[in-house]
UniProtKB/TrEMBL annotation:
Family: Belongs to the ABC transporter superfamily.
Superkingdom, natural source: Bacteria
Lineage start: Bacteria, Pseudomonadati, Pseudomonadota, Gammaproteobacteria, Oceanospirillales
Protein name: Cell division ATP-binding protein FtsE
Record GO terms (molecular function): ATP binding; ATP hydrolysis activity
InterPro entries: AAA+_ATPase, ABC_transporter-like_ATP-bd, ABC_transporter-like_CS, ACT-like_dom_sf, MetN_ABC, MetN_ABC_transporter-like, NIL_domain, P-loop_NTPase
Length: 336
């Protein structure tokens, strides 16, 4: 759906070239929620804004549905942008216009619809985002979550195939964030909408994304299915994001480990294995005693996963590990 081929971007600042995006090759499949995560200045906004050409690339090609976006003239670019919606951290609503008029704006600008058609579509969109009762209010009369719902309705007005989300939940509290992410999740499925979202929170990625790319200093340093990247992070930047999200402290863990004897392993269960009564069975069969040092069960999008850190004492620990692996549990040995 979205393809970056050797795309790079530099800005000129006081006569000096600043690289915001190093040469980037990327493929975002249709119908996916694709997350880009990185710290401030990593290049996320630049990459996102290259997709709808709010930024011009310094080199390379960007294809969207096989169309070379980088080659579009002004007229074709206007048409192309109607197929893309965008939502923003600070909502970017027009304060002087009602909720309904904000949502109607892209349709009026497109100039292809009658007043009655616009009214009908706006009513449908406001109903979909749960704001029918607020159509005549002004943005200042809404909560942050409601404002972002207006932003989403407006972004979807021209029936785009792609939605770009620029830190769309960063200004919201955790509960409102969850509601907005749930709405994006539903819209992705209902409309087969491709969503590209940027965030600095791993939890946002974990809740809604299918794939993730981790950015650091203008480079994509790690990329893949969220479950793979989240559960088995390889790059130090990714590990930091995951540890922050899991509220793990490497030093605290090391202190805990020094208090226990035996082999220390981290087990990762995914899907069905998460709820299987494996540990007791394997402990009985192999004579291994275990104590739990840390653990959690959660979801990555809709897939349950569990992670447990155990110390194993006595018995046949190697046999226990083999049995866990045979049951599709990933075993990392943290201390032999
Ligand atoms: N218009 C611009 N002119 C000059 N430099 C820019 C411009 N926009 C971004 N940059 C620089 O490019 C780099 C990447 O910025 P970008 O905004 O893409 O990062 P980001 O990961 O989105 O950060 P944040 O989360 O803070 O928005 C930074 O060093 C930034 O200072």
């Amino acid at each position: 759906m979205i393809q970056f081929e050797g795309v790079h971007k530099t800005y000129k600042v006081s006569g000096r070239e600043v690289t915001a995006l190093e040469t980037c090759n990327l493929h975002i499949p249709q119908g996916q929620i694709f997350g880009l995560i990185g710290h401030s200045g990593a290049g996320k906004s630049t990459l996102l804004r290259l997709i709808n050409r709010l930024e011009e690339p310094s080199g390379g090609r960007i294809l969207v549905a096989d169309e070379d976006v980088t080659a579009l003239n002004a007229k074709d670019l206007r048409r192309f942008r109607q197929g893309l919606g965008m939502i923003f951290q600070h909502f970017n609503l027009l304060a002087s216009k009602t909720v309904a008029d904000n949502v109607a704006m892209p349709l009026k600008l497109a100039g292809e619809h009658s007043t009655a058609q616009i009214r009908e579509r706006v009513a449908m969109l406001l109903d979909r985002v749960g704001l029918s009762d607020h159509a005549l209010k002004y943005p200042a009369q809404l909560s942050g979550g409601q404002k972002q719902r207006v932003g989403i309705a407006r972004a979807l007005a021209t029936e785009p195939k792609i939605l770009l989300c620029d830190e769309a939940t960063s200004a919201l509290d955790p509960q409102t964030t969850a509601q907005v992410l749930q709405l994006l999740n539903e819209l992705n499925r209902e409309l087969n909408l491709t969503i590209v979202l940027i965030t600095h929170e791993m939890d946002v990625i974990r809740r809604v994304c299918d794939q993730v790319a981790v950015m650091d200093a203008g480079l994509i340093v790690e990329q893949g299915q969220v479950a793979d990247v989240f559960l088995h992070p390889k790059h130090p930047t990714t590990r930091r994001f995951v540890y922050e999200a899991e509220q793990l402290d490497e030093q605290e863990m090391a202190n805990d480990f020094s208090r226990v004897e035996g082999r220390i392993v981290r087990l990762t269960f995914q899907g069905e294995a998460t709820y299987a009564p494996l540990l007791g069975q394997i402990a009985r069969q192999t004579g291994v005693d275990y104590s739990i040092l840390s653990g959690r069960i959660d979801h990555i999008r809709d897939t349950p996963y569990g992670q447990l850190t155990l110390s194993l004492v006595g018995g046949d620990a190697s046999a226990a590990i083999k049995q866990l692996q045979a049951a599709q549990v990933t075993v990392e040995v943290l201390r032999t």
